[in-house]
């Protein structure tokens, strides 16, 4: 067994000792290198020396997505800009969030993602095809590099129609398909309606970006004749490889060598009772460029109790049961309502009444933004209104890497359908 | 001077000897490993032993994009599938084209792209931001890896609005921007109309995927206060790094250590007189997975005569002056009319009369497909017609990684504007 894998089987005492060392060095680094964290800690009267026990973590303040925005562009970097070898950007609540990677970070993430793949049964014999929307670009990079680390052949997500994707899958005898649960269901539906037989070579579906109900999972496994494995990640920290299923498939094992996890009440910020649903909070332990202390992921889940029959001693969480903040997950991409409002404001000069409508059209999630017609939207012509709508659609797609149709609707109709909600997910 | 660089200064005799050795080994490999090439050569009565001189190359038959399609998926691979570590797909004339890379190919391409960057003045101190459409995904990968090879920090093209791209450019003090000439002009126009000052940190624009007129180039250099360098590539072989400008900026130096270049009359296939415009034909010399013998690029250009004042002895070609085949370059992405017709047929069941209209809207190329209304397009409702058009738009964007609006127009109007043409580029 390689060291990489052994680590997942540490004893409770082993973990405690190692976590404490990693936490101490992390806190020490951020305190001395990130003025934001130093200030937060000073305000609470906490110094790195106070971290004598893992429970001291609870004294530290939370980091939120709003903090990431406020400290844009690089006030949260714990290394000089010259040590950053890659920078990714993705939409935050109101402005872009930036994530930097040192060479060491890229290596760590490659290893984590490779562990997720290996644990899922992927080997150097595999042909791994990645089908993900451009909005998941950070994950796409990580998955591609993780699969390369395993030694597999990789088919990255080039622009392709669904017909061509299936064709490529069959012609190149893809053995592992990496996609979201909703895209996998859409693929299956498409094949069934077109009378296309599932690719015989396929043996594993790696499902990332979203959870999936047991019935739908079973349907995928039976129809494709494959095993499915789920991966969980937080773009601000790391993509799949942060949490992954073992052969028992009882929740996500967390990569405890890279993160400490807590689950808190989203309202009070207090730790929830064991096994209760709350918001996942993570502290990175080995991240060089962008360490995060008690980062509120916004993801609702619960810890799974008791040891896992697989023997891994890492903590496990349930699937993600929802979002604590104003976000919605569409095809694995997190869309925050406040960013949608920012785009609406840029388009119309104000935020009109709206409804984000997520339809499931043949199992493919399609996004519509309903905007109530009002006199402020007034344009001299219908054509003008359409052009403005097109402008919004372009901005939305450029921002989230997802298409969204803007529909102008009567206010009464919007009110009737929305009934006070901002998001409807079919 | 590193070996990598020394190679660009070989003597004429040195090149001839080396080229012959590389050509012989390439022909030998494809003859024994690629049945398609063996058959072609057998038909012409040529054996690898006949390649005793560089001029023997002219006896070999051409390879076209149609051959790449016919030999899809992997009949042109010169290595077993297990040695392929990455597979990219992109649209060919009628069906997808697939390109495989061995680990060695990835290393070669990384070196070629790094040489393009170094020759253009990029160093490990640089922050390289890549702004390219998803349709250029193969090039994006190559450019990212080439910049990493140089040791620069890389900002890959995450989905982002133009405002955010400029913001990131300024906030992270981007020094090198990699984009297409048309996107650079669009950026400039956008900044000027919005009253945004160009990023002061920017010192080099690397322009790829298209050529640019001298006046527009000068405009970019003056407004941004930068140097511009152009790179040329052929997706079927390798992206920029195949041809790049030196400090003299007099045409593209070809990477003669990786390719042999000829220029032929697109009609007759005969070599053109020195300095005459014709179609560029390339033969790869160091490619392992997908070697190409006399591949007709479809790109019209001419050889530049005489030695380059920079001292490099590699052959030079002019900018690309047009396309010999039914393709058009839009934002650096080659769109083939026959593939557009394939999509139209899938959408409407037949190919209606159409016109591909490339507009320049504020310097950003926007694509419209005009379709003549006829009774065969009949749908029970206007809504139905729109839904079918949306279906086409989605398929187009998925295929080419470029948005395209479908407009239904009266046949008379289309005829009047098109006057027999299938493409209009403003």
From TrEMBL, chains A, B:
Q: Where is the AMP-dependent synthetase/ligase domain?
A: 151-283
Q: Name one Pfam family in it.
A: AMP-binding_C_2
InterPro entries in the cross-refs: AMP-bd_C_sf, AMP-dep_Lig_C, AMP-dep_synth/lig_dom, ANL_N_sf
Answer whether the UniProt record assigns the keyword Ligase to this protein: yes
Q: For this UniProt entry, which residues form the secretion signal?
A: none
Q: Which GO terms describe its molecular function?
A: ligase activity
Keyword terms, alphabetized: Ligase
| Domain AMP-dependent ligase C-terminal, residue spans | 338-417
Could you name the domain of life of the organism this protein comes from? Bacteria
**PANTHER family per record:** BLR5969 PROTEIN (PTHR43845:SF1)
This chain's protein is named Phenylacetate--CoA ligase family protein
**What species was this sequence derived from?**
Thermodesulfatator atlanticus
């Amino acid at each position: 067994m390689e060291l990489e894998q052994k680590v997942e089987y540490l004893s409770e005492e082993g973990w405690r000792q190692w976590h404490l060392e990693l936490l101490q060095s992390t806190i020490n680094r951020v305190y001395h290198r990130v003025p934001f964290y130093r200030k937060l800690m000073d305000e609470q009267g906490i110094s790195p020396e106070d971290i004598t026990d893992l429970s001291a973590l609870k004294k530290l303040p939370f980091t939120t997505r709003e903090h990431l925005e406020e400290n844009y562009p690089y006030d949260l970097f714990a290394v000089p800009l010259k040590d950053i070898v890659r920078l990714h950007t993705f939409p935050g609540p109101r402005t872009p969030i930036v994530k930097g990677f040192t060479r060491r970070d890229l290596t760590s993430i490659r290893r984590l993602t490779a562990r997720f793949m290996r644990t899922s049964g992927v080997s150097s014999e595999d042909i791994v095809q990645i089908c993900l929307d451009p909005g998941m670009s950070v994950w796409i990079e990580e998955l591609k590099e993780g699969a390369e680390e395993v030694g597999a052949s990789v088919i990255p997500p080039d622009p392709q129609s669904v017909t061509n994707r299936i064709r490529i899958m069959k012609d190149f005898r893809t053995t592992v398909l990496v996609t979201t649960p909703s895209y996998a269901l859409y693929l299956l539906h498409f094949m069934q309606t077109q009378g296309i037989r599932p690719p015989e070579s396929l043996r594993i579906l790696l499902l990332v970006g979203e959870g999936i109900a047991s019935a739908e999972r079973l349907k995928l496994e039976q129809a494709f004749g494959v095993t499915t494995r789920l991966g969980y990640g937080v773009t601000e920290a790391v993509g799949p490889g942060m949490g992954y299923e073992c052969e028992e498939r009882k929740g996500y094992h967390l990569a405890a060598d890279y993160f400490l996890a807590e689950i808190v009440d989203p309202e009070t910020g207090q730790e929830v009772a064991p096994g209760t649903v709350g918001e996942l909070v993570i502290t990175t332990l080995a991240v060089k460029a962008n360490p995060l202390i008690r980062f509120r992921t916004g993801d609702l889940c619960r810890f799974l109790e008791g040891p896992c029959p697989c023997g891994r001693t890492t903590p496990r969480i349930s699937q993600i049961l929802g979002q604590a903040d104003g976000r919605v997950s569409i095809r694995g991409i997190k869309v925050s309502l406040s960013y949608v409002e920012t785009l609406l404001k840029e388009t119309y000069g104000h935020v009109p009444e709206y409804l984000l409508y997520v339809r499931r059209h043949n199992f493919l999630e399609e996004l519509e933004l309903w905007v109530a017609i009002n006199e402020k939207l007034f344009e001299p012509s219908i054509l003008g209104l359409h052009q403005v709508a097109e402008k919004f659609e372009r901005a939305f797609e450029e921002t989230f890497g997802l298409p969204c149709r803007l529909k102008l609707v009567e206010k009464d109709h919007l009110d009737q359908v929305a009934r006070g909600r901002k998001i409807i997910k079919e």
